[in-house]
Design goal:
The protein is of the alpha+beta class. The chain is 51% helix and 16% strand. It has 9 helices and 5 strands, in the order αααααααββαβαββ. Helix 2 packs across helix 3 and helix 8 crosses helix 9.
């Protein structure tokens, strides 16, 4: 099966064969095919096996506790890849696309969205606590240079859409510093519930 995966890809394997290889990581030196087939029969699919809670997995004869850890690693890795692909597909070129994107991400104090020259999302990262201060601004702009971003957006989740004097001052400072480095600062966007507003709009 290793040769098939290396030569033609994992798509050539049946679900139980993929599971058989994963089981071998934690249950070596025995034939894991019966366990894999039993798990597929019990849960219905490879995806369902990977999503199954530990106590349910243990109901399959021959399953070891370590299998749940391997399945969680595979599941979480797939989630990371899916999220990366989703970010790569995002083009934040207007308010509609920005609103749609922000509606799908977890709220936090501040996110920094780094964009390329076509407003495609290069990275979505939690901003430092002092991102709107002088020192934090340096950190954000340094990161933009590392990512080869040409512009960025900041999104802050607040109780109100009304910007403070500090918000306005921070945006002016960041734009001035970014201009020196060739990094554009589109806006500081405030998010309150389902409402979104840029500081420069208020």
């Amino acid at each position: 099966m290793r040769a098939r995966v290396l030569g033609r890809g994992a798509g050539t394997l049946a679900d139980y064969e993929v599971l058989e290889m994963l089981l071998f990581l934690t249950i070596p030196r025995i034939d894991t095919k019966p366990i894999a087939k039993a798990a597929i029969n019990r849960f219905g699919s490879l995806a369902a096996v990977l999503e199954a809670p530990t106590h349910a997995l243990m109901s399959v004869n021959g399953m070891s506790p370590g299998c749940a850890e391997v399945f969680a690693l595979v599941r979480d890795s797939c989630g990371c890849l899916t999220a990366a692909e989703a970010r790569a597909a995002h083009v934040l070129s207007d308010w509609a696309s920005l609103r749609a994107y922000l509606a799908c991400v977890a709220p936090c104090a501040l996110r920094v969205l780094y964009l390329d020259n076509r407003n495609r999302l290069l990275a979505d990262e939690i901003g430092p606590d002092d991102a709107l201060d002088t020192n934090g601004g340096r950190t954000v702009l340094k990161r933009a240079l590392q990512l080869h971003a040409v512009s960025l957006l900041l999104a802050a989740w607040r109780a109100s859409l009304l910007p403070t004097a500090d918000d306005r001052a921070a945006l002016v400072h960041l734009r001035s510093a970014g201009a020196v480095l060739g990094v554009g600062i589109h806006d500081l966007v405030l998010v309150a519930g389902e409402e979104v507003r840029g500081v420069h709009q208020a």
